[in-house]
């Protein structure tokens, strides 16, 4: 397979000359260029963000990512909330995948406060994180297919995702925002009959994913549009801070679950899914295999999870919990890459500063702006979805 | 950053003639909206029934609540059977679902999208955030009360509301429309100055005409 | 981790190294050596991945703390480089030439903390906020609650009572 | 390279045409999961309006508002939470932290309205369709606690170590223990109203948490000048209403108070409390009796600049605190610490001065601008059953006083005590110690009219008395003390069925059939004490207005009908130390008002 960065018009004589910086001087009044706002109100955008595209014909000449439509100032709000009061709001940082926020926040705080989480709670946390990964991948795979014109996949996977949301509802009491992993532990053991229903759902997902493979991945049109398209050069991984499946599709086996194991991952049997070609197709395939691995991981967890036990460590009274001064960084592997919380405490009841590191921060701004240049306008949506970005975690 | 893009300027047309462009006047319409009289009697009743049974929702996910739109659009909850469907452009949409909190930056786009929608148009507000600020009540970047900036027909409590609650909200909206009370667009036109004043108070970077559909 | 620090100490003046946990440590570097130190860490020690760049406002001590958190992809360890800069005319040397995403971080810091990074591309362009006229919001002296109440008027009609005060009013008003 | 398979395999999608649809038929009536966090429910009869839900809510969604039909009373603020669904995020932390477990979430989730102002309601007080739903989120178990419900245990001497001596039993909290215990406080402030002195309890507990004990002492002295004493022997009514105590142990408020007082050295009191120089007014006040009310009045008057002189009948200060409470509960050095500080403020004390004998009240009036009387209840009441006039039948208060004064106390081998209050426990345990010292064994029996569950004595007192091998056999009414010459044979009792009638009036009912006989060599009565007003002249008594129960009538400032005479303490209200302190404080303010107006 020829490894081209992008499929572009080979005949460059039609295009204006590049300047000394290797860019094209854009002069809108020359009528050759067109500026298009791709979002925020646009069906081809993931969430509430926008791309300011400069086009020449149907080729993107320049792109600027605009974020901030979802900015709520979490990092500021957390500074004026007690630690326990931060717990309900952290999950809102990343809407489609809230649990990684809860985990990173809780674990950073537990590290600073020196709290050991009970065994059962650790298992439940692992379970919830993997369930969250599963539902996020299912939502994503529908989005990736949809952005390239395959509506049917979304109809299936969103239904499958809903099954997982039902399990979430049973276990945590919430559908989207679970507010389950609070500092010190979790908020409930497995309900009765949970295992059977979960097993049933996982079987359904397995079955459906076979069809997804056939309809989406073994598909001439899909391959035609994605193979060799939107390649991330492995050399970009570190300069752009690329993590997660985006990096793994480029052959770099980066996975926090293996690199810096947390919770019960050391007791689970898995290998990071790695791809080779680093194009949209490979990234989609890496995520699909990752999804199947998650299904397998949940099965492993369900076999080991205890039915009884304490779910929360003894902590000071949360109404005036003072966390010893210090700073730490706690990370977890979410569907999009490395999720992290940098927490600074000054020894009071309120956090001094909490910084959220969402993987989309690097993927959706610097990387996307670079990748999208010279792409075809029709591929912008597919390319963007293939990076799997969630705007709320960029601006927080 | 300068705002040269809304200033008057001269450009050369492809034919080589200089043309004077005033973006705010030429690209937009700045006529204020007018309140529309409703038809009388049975015709209006029929129209209202038709409107209530074809709620076309603008696909603009403004906040968290947008995540529950996808289950609604897909087979599990299948809102299409209730005459609800999603449209990509404001021109085709009649219902604007404000899915939760609105940052000032988004509010600006929401106002523009809302104004681009055709009459009659309805607003459904999701979650605590639109009622009284919700969990971002003390944030410097999110509004507290949506009804200050645009007329709202139905509020749905929840953070975020479940798809089932959303369907209940649409159900309520249908009743309101059928009763002839879905007058949000007229209310907006009648109190245009008040709404505009509120909007301008918080949207500091106002680089568009007052009305732009 | 310890060997890395010992190595570092040969070349740079490293103050107060603190090992937070087995695979995470923090050190303080002065503003002048910081960029050199970070470049050294990236090029010679293998800390190739910039995890995050953020600031902490220590308003009492009148300085900002910049934290450059670097990750070593092979050794799987993290090192936080803390740089203290004055709050007044806060300015720091840019590292956009070392990591592409650094310019995004620096744009954000410029906007949210008012820390300037001369030379960083687009650093003065608004990033998240639009039409912001107050002091940068992440600074400690910006009161978000007060601003919110003033700007977005919460819905009226709420009132609450402190139980102890209320009981005093009801049960022993004269004492 | 295009494979044929890539063209054919997408047609797999067609097989789903025949699949059973997954659509939910009636989504509007779909029930949420059992644990779903939906709309709020509140059992307002359980709720005490402590406001913990309000303080944990990060959205400021909860207000505490008065509700019709809920009265403000001890242990219940009369307020109930009102939730604003324009703020709520359904995190359920309010449920988790609820001290009474009255708050819960139902699994109802649909609320649609046109008017945004409607989304506020008081759960439980306003009828909602989900009020009777069983399912929904409740506080999880399995070790899930947001604050510790278990009291930090207090080091105590083992019964074997303590039953021979009068060494203090309770050891006091260490710093770590005190901070842990203080950490359990939820800062609701329900206790403040119940405390007769309305001490700033949440504030001083907060001072312990912040390890700022000087501040703690300042808070204590705002309302209570005898913290060492109260920290040991207060009847701690506050703990009975503590909101944490609804599901768990109440906060150990008394021990925490003691911790603050213990940790502050006496020498530094004046510096900490900023009382090194006081502005004198030049006016003088006489105080009769150096009990809690007298000392409290003297303290606050001294702070206001009055020259106070205390007249004490006995050779030492403290009143009942010294002569009524055994040393193992309140060591004398701690008592002296509090008293000496008050004396150091310039308060003068004259011992062995009996009013009416050494000096008359009228003379006091001439020499001083105002007089405060806190002479207390020192005369033991008698059951007046046949045999009580026998010389081997004693009054508890007299014995306790004699023990302190070092007079010889009669101790017999078999003693029966009548009474169920703290004084009864004090005399039981004191005599038990003396028995152990004299005979090497304890043979004490204490009986009371009240049954075990309504015995007025503190629970721990009863438990500790039993640990010291005294027998407590409550629920018996004394009928007769059998005597034979100069010897007592024992006490005849009948079963007491109930002590109070429906109107909470004292009207004991007995079952004459159930009888018992407690053999004894000595009987001690401890059923309460009376006032001794013999120091007042008859003419003066006529000027004083009394209430129907024979107590001196006072107004809100504790001023009697004779305007220069103020009165407080056990003879007005109580009987306990904290009421005395509160009375003294109020009387001091009343005296200040009276003298400033004059």
Automatic annotation (TrEMBL), chain A:
Matching entries from InterPro entries are given as: NADH_Q_OxRdtase_suD (IPR001135), NADH_UbQ_OxRdtase_49kDa_CS (IPR014029), NDH1_su_D/H (IPR022885), NiFe-Hase_large (IPR029014)
- List the subcellular locations: Cell membrane
Give the Gene Ontology MF terms in alphabetical order: NAD binding; oxidoreductase activity, acting on NAD(P)H; quinone binding
Gene Ontology cellular component annotations, sorted alphabetically: plasma membrane
| Alphabetized UniProt keyword annotations | NAD, Translocase, Transport
Pfam families in the record: Complex1_49kDa
Q: Topology in the membrane?
A: Peripheral membrane protein
**Coiled-coil blocks:** none
The record places domain NADH-quinone oxidoreductase subunit D at: 155-396
Instruction: Look up keyword Translocase and say if it applies.
Output: yes
What the record says about family reads: Belongs to the complex I 49 kDa subunit family.
Query: What is the documented function of this protein?
Result: NDH-1 shuttles electrons from NADH, via FMN and iron-sulfur (Fe-S) centers, to quinones in the respiratory chain. The immediate electron acceptor for the enzyme in this species is believed to be ubiquinone. Couples the redox reaction to proton translocation (for every two electrons transferred, four hydrogen ions are translocated across the cytoplasmic membrane), and thus conserves the redox energy in a proton gradient.
Q: What is this protein called?
A: NADH dehydrogenase subunit D
Q: What is the lineage of its organism?
A: Bacteria, Pseudomonadati, Bacteroidota, Bacteroidia, Marinilabiliales
Automatic annotation (TrEMBL), chain B:
Name the SUPFAM superfamilies for this protein.
Answer: HydA/Nqo6-like
Under PANTHER family, the record lists: NADH DEHYDROGENASE, NADH DEHYDROGENASE [UBIQUINONE] IRON-SULFUR PROTEIN 7, MITOCHONDRIAL
| Superkingdom of origin | Bacteria
GO terms of molecular function? 4 iron, 4 sulfur cluster binding; metal ion binding; NADH dehydrogenase (ubiquinone) activity; quinone binding
Chain ranges of the NADH:ubiquinone oxidoreductase-like 20kDa subunit domain: 63-172
Q: One short Pfam family name for this protein?
A: Oxidored_q6
Q: Which GO terms describe its cellular component?
A: respiratory chain complex I
Organism from which the protein derives: Prolixibacter bellariivorans
Question: What Gene3D superfamilies does the record point to?
Answer: 3.40.50.12280
Single Gene Ontology BP annotation: electron transport coupled proton transport
The entry's keywords: 4Fe-4S, Iron, Iron-sulfur, Metal-binding, NAD, Quinone
Family the entry assigns = Belongs to the complex I 20 kDa subunit family.
Q: How is this protein named in the record?
A: NADH:ubiquinone oxidoreductase-like 20kDa subunit domain-containing protein
TrEMBL record, chain C:
The record, for SUPFAM superfamilies, names:
Nqo5-like
Q: Which residues form the NADH:ubiquinone oxidoreductase 30kDa subunit domain?
A: 31-147
Q: Give GO MF terms, alphabetically.
A: NADH dehydrogenase (ubiquinone) activity
Q: Where is this region: Disordered?
A: 150-175
Q: Where is the composition biased (Basic and acidic residues)?
A: 156-168
Do you know which InterPro entries this protein is assigned to?
A: NADH_quin_OxRdtase_su_C/D-like (IPR037232), NADH_UbQ_OxRdtase_30kDa_su (IPR001268)
One Pfam family, short name:
Complex1_30kDa
Q: Which family does it belong to?
A: Belongs to the complex I 30 kDa subunit family.
Q: What is this protein called?
A: NADH:ubiquinone oxidoreductase 30kDa subunit domain-containing protein
Source organism phylogeny: Bacteria, Pseudomonadati, Bacteroidota, Bacteroidia, Marinilabiliales
UniProtKB/TrEMBL annotation, chain D:
Start and end of every 4Fe-4S ferredoxin-type domain? 38-67, 79-108, 176-207
Q: Which SUPFAM superfamilies match?
A: 4Fe-4S ferredoxins, alpha-helical ferredoxin, Nucleotide-binding domain
Q: Which organism is it from?
A: Prolixibacter bellariivorans
The question of whether RNA-binding is a record keyword is answered with: no
Q: Which Gene3D superfamilies match?
A: 3.30.70.20, Alpha-helical ferredoxin, FAD/NAD(P)-binding domain
Top-rank taxon, per record: Bacteria
Annotated InterPro entries: 4Fe4S_Fe-S-bd, 4Fe4S_Fe_S_CS, DPD_II, FAD/NAD-bd_sf, FAD/NAD-binding_dom, Helical_ferredxn
Per its record, how is this protein called by name? Oxidoreductase
The Swiss-Prot or TrEMBL record annotates one GO molecular function as: oxidoreductase activity
List the PROSITE patterns.
4FE4S_FER_1 (PS00198), 4FE4S_FER_2 (PS51379)
Q: Which UniProt keywords apply?
A: Iron, Iron-sulfur, Metal-binding
């Amino acid at each position: 397979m020829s490894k081209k960065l992008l499929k572009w018009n080979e005949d460059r004589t039609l295009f204006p000359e590049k300047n000394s910086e290797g860019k094209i001087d854009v002069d809108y009044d020359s009528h050759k260029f067109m500026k298009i706002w791709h979002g925020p109100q646009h069906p081809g955008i993931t969430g509430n963000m926008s791309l300011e595209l400069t086009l020449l014909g149907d080729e993107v000449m320049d792109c600027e990512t605009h974020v901030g439509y979802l900015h709520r100032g979490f990092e500021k709000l957390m500074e004026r909330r007690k630690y326990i009061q931060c717990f309900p709001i952290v999950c809102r940082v990343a809407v489609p995948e809230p649990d990684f926020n809860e985990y990173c926040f809780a674990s950073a705080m537990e590290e600073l406060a020196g709290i050991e989480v009970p065994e059962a709670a650790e298992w439940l946390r692992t379970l919830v994180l993997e369930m969250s990964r599963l539902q996020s991948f299912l939502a994503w795979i529908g989005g990736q297919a949809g952005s390239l014109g395959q509506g049917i996949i979304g109809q299936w996977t969103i239904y499958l995702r809903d099954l997982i949301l039902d399990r979430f509802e049973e276990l945590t009491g919430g559908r989207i925002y679970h507010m389950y992993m609070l500092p010190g532990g979790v908020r409930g053991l497995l309900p009765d009959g949970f295992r059977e229903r979960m097993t049933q759902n996982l079987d359904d997902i397995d079955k459906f994913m076979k069809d997804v493979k056939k309809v989406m991945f073994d598909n001439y049109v899909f391959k035609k549009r994605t193979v060799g398209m939107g390649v991330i050069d492995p050399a970009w991984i570190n300069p752009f801070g690329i993590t997660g499946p985006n990096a793994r599709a480029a052959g770099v086996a980066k996975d926090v679950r293996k690199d810096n194991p947390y919770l019960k991952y050391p007791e689970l049997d898995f290998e990071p899914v790695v791809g080779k070609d680093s194009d949209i197709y490979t990234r989609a395939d890496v995520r699909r295999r990752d999804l199947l691995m998650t299904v397998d991981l949940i099965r492993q967890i369900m076999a080991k999870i205890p039915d009884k036990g304490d779910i929360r460590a003894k902590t000071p009274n949360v109404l005036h919990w003072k966390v010893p001064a210090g700073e730490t960084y706690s990370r977890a592997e979410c569907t999009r890459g490395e999720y992290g919380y940098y927490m600074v405490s000054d020894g009071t009841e309120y956090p001094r500063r909490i910084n959220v590191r969402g993987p989309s921060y690097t993927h959706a701004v610097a990387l996307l702006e670079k990748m999208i240049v010279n792409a075809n306008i029709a591929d912008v949506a597919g390319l963007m979805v293939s990076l799997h970005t969630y705007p709320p975690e960029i601006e927080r | 950053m300068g705002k040269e893009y809304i200033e008057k300027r001269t450009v050369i047309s492809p034919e080589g003639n200089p043309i004077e462009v005033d973006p705010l006047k030429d690209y937009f319409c700045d006529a204020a909206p007018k309140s529309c009289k409703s038809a009388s009697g049975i015709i209006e009743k029929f129209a209202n029934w038709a409107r209530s049974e074809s709620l076309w929702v603008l696909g603009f996910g403004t906040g968290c609540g947008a995540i529950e739109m996808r289950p609604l659009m897909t087979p599990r909850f299948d809102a299409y059977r209730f005459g609800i469907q999603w449209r990509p452009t404001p021109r085709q949409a009649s219902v604007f679902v404000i899915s939760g909190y609105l940052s000032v930056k988004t509010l600006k786009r929401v106002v523009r999208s809302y104004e681009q929608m055709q009459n009659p148009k309805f607003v459904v507000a999701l979650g605590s955030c639109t009622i009284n600020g919700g969990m971002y009540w003390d944030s410097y970047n999110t509004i507290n009360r949506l009804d200050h900036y645009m007329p709202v027909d139905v509020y749905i409590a929840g953070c975020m509301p479940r798809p089932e609650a959303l369907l209940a909200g649409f159900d309520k909206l249908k009743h309101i429309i059928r009763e002839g009370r879905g007058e949000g667009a007229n209310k907006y036109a009648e109190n245009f100055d008040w709404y505009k004043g509120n909007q301008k108070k918080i949207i500091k970077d106002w680089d568009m005409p007052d009305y732009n559909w | 981790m310890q060997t890395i620090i010992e190595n570092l100490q040969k070349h740079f003046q490293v103050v107060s190294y603190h090992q937070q946990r087995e695979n995470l440590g923090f050190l303080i570097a002065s503003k002048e050596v910081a960029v050199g130190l970070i470049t050294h860490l990236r090029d010679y020690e293998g800390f190739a991945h910039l995890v995050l760049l953020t600031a902490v406002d220590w308003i009492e001590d009148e300085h900002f703390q910049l934290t450059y958190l670097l990750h070593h992809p092979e050794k799987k360890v993290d090192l936080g480089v803390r740089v203290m800069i004055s709050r007044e005319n806060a300015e720091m040397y840019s590292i956009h030439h070392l990591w592409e995403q650094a310019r995004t971080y620096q744009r954000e810091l410029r906007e949210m903390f008012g820390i300037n990074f001369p030379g960083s591309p687009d650093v003065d362009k608004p990033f998240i906020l639009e039409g912001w006229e107050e002091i940068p919001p992440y600074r400690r002296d910006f009161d978000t609650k007060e601003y919110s109440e003033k700007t977005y008027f919460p819905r009226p009609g709420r009132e609450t009572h402190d139980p102890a005060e209320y009981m005093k009013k009801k049960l022993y008003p004269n004492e | 390279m295009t494979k044929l398979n890539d063209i054919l395999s997408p047609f797999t999608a067609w097989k789903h045409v025949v699949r059973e649809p997954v659509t939910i038929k009636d989504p509007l009536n779909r029930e949420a999961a059992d644990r779903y966090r939906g709309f709020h429910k509140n059992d307002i009869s359980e709720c005490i309006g402590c406001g913990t839900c309000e303080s944990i809510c990060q959205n400021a969604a909860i207000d505490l508002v008065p509700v019709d039909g809920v009265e403000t009373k001890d242990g219940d603020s009369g307020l109930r939470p009102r939730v604003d669904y324009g703020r709520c995020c359904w995190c359920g932390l309010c449920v988790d932290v609820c001290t009474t477990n009255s708050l819960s979430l139902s699994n109802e989730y649909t609320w649609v309205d046109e008017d945004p102002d409607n989304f506020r309601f008081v759960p439980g007080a306003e009828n909602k369709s989900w009020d009777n739903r069983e399912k929904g989120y409740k506080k999880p178990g399995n070790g899930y606690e947001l604050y510790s419900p278990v009291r930090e245990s207090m080091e105590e001497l083992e019964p074997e170590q303590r039953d021979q001596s009068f060494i203090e039993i309770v050891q006091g909290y260490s710093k770590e223990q005190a901070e842990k215990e203080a950490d359990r406080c939820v800062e609701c402030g329900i206790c403040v109203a119940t405390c007769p002195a309305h001490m700033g309890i949440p504030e001083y507990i907060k001072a312990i948490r912040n390890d700022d004990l000087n501040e703690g002492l300042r808070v204590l002295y705002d309302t209570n000048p005898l913290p060492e004493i109260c920290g040991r022997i207060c009847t701690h009514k506050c703990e009975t209403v503590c909101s944490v105590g609804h599901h768990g142990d109440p906060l150990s408020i008394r021990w925490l108070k003691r911790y603050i007082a213990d940790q502050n050295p006496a020498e530094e009191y004046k510096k900490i409390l900023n009382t090194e120089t006081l502005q004198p007014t030049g006016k003088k006040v006489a105080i009769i009796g150096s009990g809690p009310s007298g000392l409290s009045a003297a303290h606050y008057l001294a702070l206001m600049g009055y020259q106070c002189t205390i007249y004490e009948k006995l050779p030492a200060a403290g009143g009942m605190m010294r002569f009524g409470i055994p040393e193992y509960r309140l060591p004398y050095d701690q008592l002296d610490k509090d008293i000496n500080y008050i004396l150091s403020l310039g308060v003068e004390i004259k011992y062995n001065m009996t009013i009416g004998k050494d000096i008359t009240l009228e003379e006091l009036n001439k020499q001083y601008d105002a007089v405060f009387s806190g002479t207390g209840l020192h005369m033991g009441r008698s059951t007046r059953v046949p045999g009580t006039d026998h010389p081997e039948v004693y009054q508890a208060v007299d014995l306790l006083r004699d023990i302190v004064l070092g007079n010889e106390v009669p101790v017999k081998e078999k003693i029966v005590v009548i009474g169920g209050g703290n004084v009864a426990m004090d005399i039981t345990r004191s005599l038990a110690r003396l028995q152990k010292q004299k005979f090497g064994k304890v043979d004490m029996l204490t009986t009371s009219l009240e049954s075990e569950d309504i015995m007025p004595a503190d629970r721990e007192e009863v438990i500790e008395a039993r640990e010291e091998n005294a027998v407590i056999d409550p629920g018996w009414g004394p009928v007769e003390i059998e005597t034979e010459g100069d010897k007592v044979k024992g006490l005849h009792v009948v079963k007491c069925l109930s002590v109070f009638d429906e109107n909470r009036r004292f009207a004991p009912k007995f079952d004459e059939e159930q009888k018992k006989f407690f053999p004894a060599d000595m009987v001690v009565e401890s059923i309460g004490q009376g006032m001794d007003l013999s120091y007042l002249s008859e003419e003066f008594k006529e000027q004083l207005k009394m209430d129907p129960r024979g107590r001196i009538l006072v107004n809100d400032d504790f001023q009697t009908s004779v305007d220069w005479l103020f009165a407080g303490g056990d003879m007005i209200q109580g009987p306990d130390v904290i009421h005395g302190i509160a009375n003294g404080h109020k009387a001091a303010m009343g005296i200040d008002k009276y003298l400033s107006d004059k």
